[in-house]
Structures are given as structure tokens and as C-alpha cells.
Amino acid sequence: MTEELVLLATHLLNCARGLFNEPQAYGPIRCLDAARRTFVIAEKAGLRDERLADIRARLDDFMCGPMEYHDLAAFLDELCATLLTALKESDVLSSTGGERG
Q1: N or C: which end of the chain has fewer CB within 10 A?
Q2: 34 neighbors 19 (Cβ within 8 angstroms)
Q3: Residue 87, C-beta contacts closer than 8 angstroms, at least 6 positions apart
Q4: Any residues with CB less than 8 A from the CB of 63 and at least 6 apart, and which?
Q5: What is the pLDDT of residues 27-65, one digit of tens each?
Q6: 98: alpha, beta or left, given left = phi > 0 and alpha = psi -120 to 50?
Q7: What is the C-alpha separation between 62 and 79, in angstroms, rounded?
Q8: Which residue in 5, 40, 34, 41 sits closest to 19, CA to CA?
Q9: DSSP letters of 36-71?
């Protein structure tokens, strides 16, 4: 698990550095990939939630499928709404989790 987290941090740092020279549209796509990778790590750590697994699968389809035009903003809006609903209706987050940013 530690290796997976270090690889995720490495990915995020590489993404941050790449943003200076890449087209602006790459930023959201890199964030989608980081979210996808984070869900994979959470599942490997034992998180079992069907709705979150569905979000990860949709991210997999987006990242690994054919690169065609997508309404990325609408896709992100839909995923964020789905994630918010899933988190509100699950016990994934602690109600006494302290401060959140």
C-alpha cells in the first residue's frame, strides 16, 4: 500500500510539473486519472462500496477508452454529484473525522 501511495504522489508531482508545458485541457484529465488511481488504492485497502466502484469504473472507461470528444465539464459535474450522494448515504467518511479542507 505504501508503494501505491508513493506512486500516486509521484504521479501528482509529475502532473503538476507537466501543467506548465501542456495544453490547458490536460489539467482536468490528469485530475481524473489521479482520482481513478486513488479509488484503486482505496479498493486495494479494503473499501467496498458499489457506488464508488461504479465511479472508478466510469473513470477507467474514460481514461482507457478511445480518445474522442467528451463534454468533460458535464462528465465531471455528473461524477461529483454521484460521489456526493454516495458519500452522504454511506459510512465511508467518519462523522467525527475532524477538520476537512
Answers
A1: C
A2: no
A3: 93
A4: 29, 32, 33, 36
A5: 988 999 999 999 999 999 999 999 999 999 999 998 888
A6: left
A7: 12
A8: 34
A9: HHHHHHHHHTT---HHHHHHHHHHHHHHHS------
